[in-house]
Amino acid sequence: MPQVIALALLGAGLYAGYRWFARAAGAIGDAITRAEDEGRQQSQGRIEKDLGALEYDAASGVYRPAKRH
């Protein structure tokens, strides 16, 4: 009989641990989704412009758009 009680307690502990893990994993997934949504919203406010090929300007030490001939 003590084995049955120990097995029942072990099962209850495993079930409680599973539920805790599932809840924690769900909260982490929600946080990741919120962070991705915030990143998308912030990037929508910017205007990205394709400058084409860049070439190094040794005089100023920066890259500038290549001159089209």
Short description:
62% of the residues lie in helices and 12% in strands. The chain contains 1 helix and 2 strands.
Write the layout of secondary structure elements.
Blueprint: H1 2-44, E1 54-57, E2 62-65
Antiparallel strand pairs: 1-2
Task: Give structural notes.
- With 69 residues, this protein is mainly α.
- It has one domain.
- It contains one helix and two strands.
- The protein has one helix at residues 2-44; strands spanning 54-57, 62-65.
- Strands 1-2 form a two-stranded antiparallel sheet.
Number of domains: 1
**Order of helices and strands, N to C?**
HEE
Overall geometry comes to: rod-shaped
What's the helix count?
1
The strand count comes to 2
Structural class based on helices, strands and sheet pairing: mainly alpha
Name some characteristics of this structure.
two-stranded antiparallel ribbon, mainly alpha, 69 residues, 2 strands, single chain, rod-shaped, 1 helix
